[in-house]
Amino acid sequence: MAPSAAPQRTVIENVAIATVDAQDTEYASGHIVVAGHRIESLGAGRAPEGLENVVRRVDGTGHLVTPGLVNTHHHFYQWITRGLATDHNLFDWLVALYPTWARIDEDMVRAAARGSLAMMARGGVTTAMDHHYVYPRGSGDLSGAIIGAARDMGVRFTLARGSMDRGEKDGGLPPDFAVESLEGALAATEETVKEHHDASFDAMTQVAVAPCSPFSVSTELMKQGAALARRLGVRLHTHGSETVEEEKFCHELFGMGPTDYFASTGWLGEDVWMAHCVHMNDDDIAAFARTGTGVAHCPSSNARLAAGIARVPDMLRAGVPVGLGVDGTASNESGELHTELRNALLINRLGAHKEAALTARQALRLGTYGGAQVLGRAGQIGSLEAGKLADLVLWKTDGIGHSTIADPVTALVFGAAAPVTLSLVNGEPVVEHGRLLRVDEDEIARTARAEAQRLARVAAGS
Predict the structure, then answer these.
(1) Which residue of 3, 202, 242, 415 is surrounded by the most CB atoms within 10 Å?
(2) 325 neighbors 72 (Cβ within 8 angstroms)
(3) Distance, CA of 317 to CA of 342 (rounded, Å)
(4) What is the pLDDT of residues 154-197, one digit of tens each?
(5) Which residues of the chain have pLDDT under 50?
(6) How many H helices and E strands in the chain?
(7) Total Cβ atoms within 10 A of residue 115
(8) Are the C-beta atoms of 366 and 324 separated by less than 8 Å?
(9) CA dihedral (304, 310, 313, 318) positive or negative
(10) What residues does 395 pair with on adjacent strands?
(11) Where are the alpha helices (DSSP H) in 292-332?
């Protein structure tokens, strides 16, 4: 048998490194060696001499390298409905926008997914996630369009295959023609998992089971969805405890609060993560910590919809896994995750813990390792360690926006969005000098604008 070819190596030197490992190891000037898809070594000073098959050397002077950012909650389709219903709370916002969202089709969703992914990737996201739950009848292969867009972009991706079966006639918010039947939702979700989910170490595409929310999904779909996910060995995702209106809804409909309802339907556990979790009492947080249930913290969206301030410091202190989420761009029009690093830190300082709420390094951990935890991938991504997948970002911190901030992690989190000089996913470049390498950004913008205009026309004529 012929010996296997030596892996190609990329060497980054003279760079500040924030590993976000268990010890928060940092190097003021260090190196990283990438061999194939994985991090081979890293440490202080220059890279070892005599490395073979080095195809690229990067001088990281004036830069900080971190793990790639991990987004844990999003709704890509909303890219083509940005800037609408800007002065609404959650329920009023949903009522205003569902009639439009219910008219999406495959071409619209593909264009929106490409726009959402492009914005995140060029801003340092190496692992993206989409919770897609609107599947109007006759709209085409929406899951395939989303997964294809992520594959073309070159980012790691989790599709949370959502569903809704509680339409207006059953007391839900979405139009009846935009929801699925219980049986149809379960069957389509299982088909998506079997067709697209990859359980391997270096998987680029994974699928989660993700009924939308307690107020748009029947109890039976929640229960059977949890059973399906565990039978197939995939994770579970939904919205939880986002607003006081949701708390009231759960008490009126189920006779209990959201966390108790989730427990009653099998939706607490190490394989579950919830979006938002703004209105959590001490018992709720204890239940999440006890069961290992994760949280996707979306500070910008929570502020945009006036939902409130999630108790992130208390969750972290209790041991709840917490990552960051952009949320859909109809409630966070910037659509990129660096904003969430900064807003997670700043907004939580408006809460009970004030200036002691979060530090810059805790915010960076939320956006990297914390996100990997809630997606179930902390063994592969989320920190810079030998043997892990080579998903990393080289941030320029010596320009006008950051050069007078001595600490590079503080510069990244407290400062303006830092330019991305290089982003690697699986050791392969996805972004260089702020530009996406695998897609045409201008074409993405044109197509998304055209599809947004078409959706507006379709919705107006319905």
Answers:
(1) 242
(2) yes
(3) 20
(4) 999 999 999 999 888 887 777 787 899 999 999 999 999 999 99
(5) 1
(6) 15, 17
(7) 25
(8) yes
(9) negative
(10) 64, 420
(11) 299-304, 312-318
